[in-house]
């Protein structure tokens, strides 16, 4: 989630992406099922693609390289990939230890290339810095599924899978706007992530664009944190001191949101509603309990890693996706940023991460 290259780069290039409005909990479901246009009653020409399903097929080895799991979301991504691979009898997963050091991660990927894995799933520590090793894999005939942090060059991957940072902000703004649309002179504040990251800028841009549709709402303050509990607490405390009254808070990240909640409780404030980001189990538990200010969270689904494994398996087996007319898997899959509230939290609870 803490990418140096936003998924929006892929989103903005329409000719190499397809937008799928699927909820996070069902992100991998499209890969199940089988279709054929061959009639049982006649010998028509078989032009239908083979489609990936759960039945054992050709044995494949998938190499997986991600950054160090130093954040709840990143750990959940790794677990999603591992768990999905274990589901398939025909998949062997070669998983690296993970690193936030670009040179070390490049070395880990080169080791997987030398092992001649059938396909690679790469969540780069820095998409721009690791573009060359993606190109190296593709030139070696190993398809690459680029996860979350997009490479600089579309030739460095066969398929991109990621979340929608702009969509997170947009849906957070829409939810807050609908809750406050009848309130005159409503005020909102924003607790952003790391400000120099494009993903943070995209989330803010989406939020601001959504609020343009609600002229009664003004964003009166914004503070950038660092996606940590400690930064969330300290930056939220600053916002609370500077703003004696407001009606809603949009927090970009549920991990830093734990700290924000602490600051809110210490200040004894409860006059506003809070919307989080990413979809942690802690946030969902709080939403379900309905006792604090946290009323919703906007998903950035870690299930994208499970979908990446599905797509990697389909690529290695030369299969397509059930439910689509296309013979090939898509060039890009962007997950939808669903808003989780008390009304639907039970549905999304299985995707919540620690």
UniProtKB/TrEMBL annotation:
<comment type="similarity">
    <text>Belongs to the bacterial solute-binding protein 2 family.</text>
</comment>
<protein>
    <submittedName>
        <fullName>Substrate-binding domain-containing protein</fullName>
    </submittedName>
</protein>
<feature type="region of interest" description="Disordered">
    <location>
        <begin position="36"/>
        <end position="55"/>
    </location>
</feature>
<keyword id="KW-0732">Signal</keyword>
<dbReference type="GO" id="GO:0030246">
    <property type="term" value="F:carbohydrate binding"/>
</dbReference>
<dbReference type="Pfam" id="PF13407">
    <property type="entry name" value="Peripla_BP_4"/>
</dbReference>
<feature type="domain" description="Periplasmic binding protein">
    <location>
        <begin position="62"/>
        <end position="319"/>
    </location>
</feature>
<dbReference type="InterPro" id="IPR006311">
    <property type="entry name" value="TAT_signal"/>
</dbReference>
<dbReference type="InterPro" id="IPR028082">
    <property type="entry name" value="Peripla_BP_I"/>
</dbReference>
<dbReference type="InterPro" id="IPR025997">
    <property type="entry name" value="SBP_2_dom"/>
</dbReference>
<feature type="compositionally biased region" description="Basic and acidic residues">
    <location>
        <begin position="40"/>
        <end position="55"/>
    </location>
</feature>
<dbReference type="GO" id="GO:0030313">
    <property type="term" value="C:cell envelope"/>
</dbReference>
